[in-house]
Design a protein that fits this description.
single chain, 218 residues, alpha+beta, Peptide Methionine Sulfoxide Reductase, Chain A, two-stranded antiparallel ribbon, 10 strands
Length: 218
């Protein structure tokens, strides 16, 4: 899929867009909380989730109370090809993903997954999200612990049994390293609030999260 370049005049910055134009409509799916959750533990923990363009995933999870940082990157492939130029060719095995650092005393892993399935992306779209096509946009969870893997598998099964979505859930549970994306992709939502993709896709998604989960929103 051809991807446009963004030229920020006067700033000397040329950034490759990770995402194409997208429709504006967005809402949160009403789904139950997970019946199985990871036990709380002292200190911060990390979650790695993939669900389409990492700009939007990062934007949503930065709104969640208890999340201390979100990094956009690539998961599921090798370090050698973890770059936008390689991943955009759709041959490296990576998925655009986010690494979420969070305080489990304030927000649980299961709660993060509820946000992930409900509003951060559409778990019924195979190798795509909205207008973005290719396996790098797949829906995938990369558990960082055995407990996370059990929670993720149990929640997918729970939502499937409950027929929470009209179409089957295609989210995969995968393993592999996480590699941060280029600097120009980080905090893209906050740095470029008037970018057409942000305005048409990610701002409605963030608004949907804040409307559906007001107690979770910062």
């Amino acid at each position: 899929m051809p991807r446009p370049y963004i030229v920020l005049a006067g700033l000397g910055l040329i950034a490759t867009s990770a995402c194409s134009a997208a429709p504006a409509a967005e809402h949160a799916a009403v789904i139950p909380a997970p019946t199985l959750d990871a036990p709380s533990a002292p200190g911060v923990q990390t979650a790695v989730l993939a669900g389409g363009c990492f700009w939007g995933m990062e934007a949503v999870f930065e709104q969640v109370k208890g999340v201390t940082s979100v990094v956009s990157g690539y998961a599921g492939g090798s370090k050698a090809t973890a770059s936008y130029g390689d991943v955009s060719g759709e041959k490296t095995g990576h998925a655009e993903a986010v690494k979420i650092t969070y305080d489990p005393a304030r927000v649980s892993y299961g709660t993060l997954l509820r946000v992930y399935f409900s509003v951060a992306h559409d778990p019924t779209q195979l190798n795509r999200q909205g207008p973005d096509r290719g396996p790098s946009y797949r829906s995938a969870i990369f558990p960082q612990t055995v407990a996370q893997q059990k929670v993720a598998a149990a929640y997918i099964a729970q939502l499937t049994r409950a027929h929470a979505f009209e179409a089957p859930i295609v989210t995969r549970i995968e393993h592999g390293g996480f590699y941060p994306a280029e600097a120009y992709h980080q905090d893209f939502y906050r740095k470029h609030p008037t970018h057409p993709y942000i305005v048409r896709w990610d701002k409605p998604k963030v608004a949907a999260f804040r409307a559906a989960f007001p107690k979770l929103a910062v």
